[in-house]
Amino acid sequence: MVIGYLSYLLMGAAIFQALEEQSERKVKREMVDQKRMFLENHSCLSEEAMRNFLQMMMKAQQNGVNLLEMESLNQTNWDFSGSFFFVGTVITTIGYGYLAPRTAGGQIFCVLFAMFGIPLNLIVLSRVGKRLSSCTERLDKLLYKQGIEKKLVKFVTMVFFLMMGIFLFLAIPPLVFHSIEGWSYREGVYYAFITLSTIGFGDYVVGEVILH
């Protein structure tokens, strides 16, 4: 089992390296060329001043401030809707990572909130699971009364709920994201799966400008 587990990780690492490494190198080359051209066209700007400016922009991005979207100093990620979205990502353990508390009070409260919120979320999901299980049992009984074999009933029920789950959570949401966010269907499927699996990379977040 350990050998199989490690082999799976090694295989995944090799495939990601093959798929992503050259793309990253290409972006780096483009950025180096853009930096060189920018400094050549703006000779009054030193490389050190540009580096300081870029560091400031990166720090702002890490704090959840998108300078491309900022039209007013009154805009904030921590209004009620943004805060509500954040607490949802906390208790579901998605943790996109694009927004996080920076104050000492916010970080302490986040720990306490998650400590009680995550178990509460698990209890709610458990109750939902029980309801779905009861629906499955009803469907089993209904099909069994029709004279269908028990093994076939189990298989049909499993396929039915699997297809319903894929349809509701992976097929429909990307259409909504395409309409509202302007993402492609592939990006919508990717975002839906990364969110539902609670991986939550944070490279795609609703309401945020995607810089790829």
TrEMBL record:
Keyword check for Membrane: yes
Signal peptide extent: 1-18
InterPro entries: 2pore_dom_K_chnl (IPR003280), 2pore_dom_K_chnl_TASK (IPR003092), K_chnl_dom (IPR013099)
Superkingdom of the source species: Eukaryota
Parts of the chain that traverse the membrane: 80-99, 105-124, 155-177, 189-211
Keyword tags: Ion channel, Ion transport, Membrane, Potassium, Potassium channel, Potassium transport, Signal, Transmembrane, Transmembrane helix, Transport
Subcellular location: Membrane
Membrane-protein topology: Multi-pass membrane protein
Residue ranges annotated for the Potassium channel domain, each copy included: 75-133, 168-206
SUPFAM superfamilies: Voltage-gated potassium channels
Pfam families, per the entry: Ion_trans_2 (PF07885)
Family of this protein: Belongs to the two pore domain potassium channel (TC 1.A.1.8) family.
UniProt name for this protein: KCNKG protein
Source taxonomy: Eukaryota, Metazoa, Chordata, Craniata, Vertebrata
Gene expressing this chain: Kcnk16
